[in-house]
Amino acid sequence: MNRFGPALRAIDWTGWLGAAIVATILLAAIFAPLVAPYDPVALSIEDRLSAPDAAHWLGTDQAGRDVFSRIVFGARASLAVGIGAVLIGALLGVSAGLFAAYEGGLGEQIVMRIVDGIAAIPLLVWAIAIVGILGVGPLPLGPFLLPNEVKIVILVGCLFSPVFARVTYAVAKRVVGADYVKARYLQGASHWQIVTGDILPNCLSPVIVQATLLVAIGIVIEASISFVGLGVQPPQPSWGSMLSDARNAIYSGEWWLPVFPGLAISITVIGFNLLGDAVRELFDPRSEARTLVA
């Protein structure tokens, strides 16, 4: 901790703001039953379309459900997709990038051409197209049924893998030809030891930076899929589905229905982007923070 103390102090205030936003949203999602004052799916027709007041801080929707409670619980779906997809994408992409860089030859060409092919189509187009084909119901997978939310996490994770593969490949390709790697091979180290002990650690910094930034993209993708009705299904709350339900509300005067879910998405994405910029600054060898760590 003493080693990173000066570096953490050198991070710009925007990085700390991003960390505070992310921490607040994560804690709110984890402790949603304690934070939310109402059941997010409980109907209350007598309270429908109530403007923000002391009883309902952010108002109620068309079914009388508390908007604040639905936003808090909706954070779970968004963060689950964002973080879960990044973990899956990192596992697949880093493995593919390491294999391509270390194997070389035909294996390298095949893996990287597949990566290029997937990356050629925008993530959101892939996501909507594949979820539209598979449908919103559970996906049979042998004796198991994958819920729609799990299906989306796996899908977005697979779509994130080319990004991680390219980042890992670019770094690993340089490290593979280094003299100390060749020396390790001459010393009798196994391929597994060289890849995991010498090449992989050099790839972690850019992978961590990319992971932080991709969480924000995952949240936007989940909201977009839910907005068109292919994501989290009612009555479970989702920021995207809340925006979809409120599309026409602003014209009839219920401004709070689209504004607050939209703010939740915007603030969360901004928070992760600010945090990602701070992490990138910390790992950038040209930055003051990185110099202090070294």
Keywords:
two-stranded antiparallel ribbon; 70% helix; single chain; mainly alpha; disordered C terminus; 294 residues
Description:
The protein is mostly helical and 294 residues long. It is 70% helix and 2% strand. The protein has 12 helices and 2 strands; from the N terminus they run ααααααββαααααα. It has helices spanning 5-10, 13-30, 32-35, 67-103, 105-119, 123-134, 148-176, 179-186, 191-227, 239-245, 256-283, 288-293; strands at 139-141, 144-146. It has a two-stranded antiparallel ribbon. The longest helix has 37 residues, at 67-103. The radius of gyration is 22 Å and the shape is elongated. It starts with a helix and ends with a helix. Residues 288-294 have low confidence and may be disordered.
Itemize the secondary structure elements and their pairings:
Layout: H1 5-10, H2 13-30, H3 32-35, H4 67-103, H5 105-119, H6 123-134, E1 139-141, E2 144-146, H7 148-176, H8 179-186, H9 191-227, H10 239-245, H11 256-283, H12 288-293
Helix pairs in contact: 2-4, 2-11, 4-5, 4-7, 4-9, 4-11, 5-7, 6-7, 7-9, 9-10, 9-11, 10-11
Compose a concise summary of this entry.
It contains twelve helices and two strands.
